Amino acid sequence: MAKVLVVDDSDNIRIFIKGIIEKAGHEVVEGHDGAHALTVAKANPDIKLVVTDFNMPNMDGIAFTKAFKADPGFASVPVLMITTEGSDSLKAMGKEAGVLAWLTKPVAAEKVTAVIAKIFSKAA
Predict the structure, then answer these.
(1) 36-62 burial string, b = 16+ CB within 10 Å, else e?
(2) What does the H/E/C string look like for the chain?
(3) Cα(30)–Cα(56) distance, rounded to whole angstroms?
(4) What is the pLDDT of residues 17-48, one digit of tens each?
(5) CA torsion sign, 57 to 95 to 84 to 108?
(6) Which of 30, 54, 67, 123 is surrounded by the most beta carbons within 10 Å?
(7) First vs last Cα of the chain: how many Å apart?
């Protein structure tokens, strides 16, 4: 199906999100922070969705989203933020950066699956 970039500095969270996405039939590539994820993205120009955390070392999720979306090849790729942060001001900053959807941790696998399915149905 689609290639999805999962970005989180927590190995456990990346493994959890990766499992959900692979179970839905998608391929996953991983980044352990925003800076690393940009390198992974450049090596995988066929990415169709990004699922990222906000709180990460080196480059947070919003800075990553801005840099990712600045690349014309990725400008239309949807970004889903899954983070412990849920303030309206941070969500507004995310939306301005190009984040399409926002889920607050802890999050159920079913919710992640539903949101990703909705994103892909709108992109089709």
Answers:
(1) bbbebbeeeeebbbbbbbbebeebbbb
(2) CCEEEEECCCHHHHHHHHHHHHHCCCEEEEECCHHHHHHHHHHCCCEEEEEECCCCCCCCHHHHHHHHHHCCCCCCCCEEEEECCCCHHHHHHHHHHCCCEEEECCCCHHHHHHHHHHHHHHHC
(3) 14
(4) 999 999 999 999 999 999 999 999 999 999 99
(5) negative
(6) 54
(7) 12
pLDDT tens-digit profile of 110-122?
999 999 999 999 8
> According to the model, what pLDDT value does residue 124 have?
60
Q: Where residue 34 sits, what CATH number does that domain have?
A: 3.40.50.2300
pLDDT in tens, 34-92: 999 999 999 999 999 999 999 999 999 999 999 999 999 999 999 999 999 999 999 99
Phi, psi (5° rounding) for residue 116?
-65, -40
The tally of domains found in the chain comes to 1
| d(C-alpha 24, C-alpha 1), whole Å | 9
Q: Which domain holds residue 74?
A: 3-123
